[in-house]
Amino acid sequence: MSDETQAAQLSPLAHQFDDLAQQNEADDLGMWLFLCTELMFFGGLFLAYTIYRTRDEATFAAASRELELLWGTVNTAVLLTSSLTMALAVHAAETRHRQKLIVFLFVTMLLGCAFVSIKFMEYYHKYLHGLMPLLGLPFKWDGTSPGHAEMFFDLYFVMTGVHALHMLIGLGIMLVLLVQATRGRLLGGFSGPVRVTGLYWHFVDLVWVFLFPLLYLIGAR
Amino acid sequence: MTALIETGSMKMPDLGPLSKRNYLNSGYTVRSWLLTTDHKRIALLYLMSITFFFVLGGAAATLVRLDLMTPQADLVQSETFNKLFTAHGVIMVFFFLVPSIPAVLGNFLVPLMVGARDLAFPRLNLLSWYIYMLGGLFTLYALLAGGVDTGWTFYAPYSSTYSNTYVMATAVGIFITGFSSILTGLNFIVTIHKMRAPGLTWFRLPLFIWSIYATSIIMVLGTPVLAITLLLVGLERILGLGIFDPRLGGDPILFQHLFWFYSHPAVYIMILPSMGVISEIIPCYCRKRPFGYAFIGFSSFAIAVFSFLVWGHHLFVSGQSIYAGMVFSMLSYLVAIPSAVKVFNWTASLHKGSISFDTPMLYALGFVGLFTMGGLTGLFVAALAVDVHVHDTYFIVAHFHYIMVGGAVMGYLGGIHFWWPKMTGRLYPEGWARLSAILIFIGFNLTFFPQYILGYLGMPRRYHIYPPEFQVLNVMSSAGASILGVGYFFPLTYLVWSLYYGKRASANPWRATGLEWQTPSPPPTENFAETPIVLDEAYDYKRMDGQLAEGGTA
Amino acid sequence: MSHKRSDISIYVTVYVVLLVLLALTVEAARHDLGHWNFAVTMAIAGAKAVCIGLFFMHLRTSTPLVKLVVTASLLWIAILFSLSLADYWTRDWDSLVGGSRDVSRSDAAQ
Question: pTM here?
Answer without folding.
Answer: 0.93
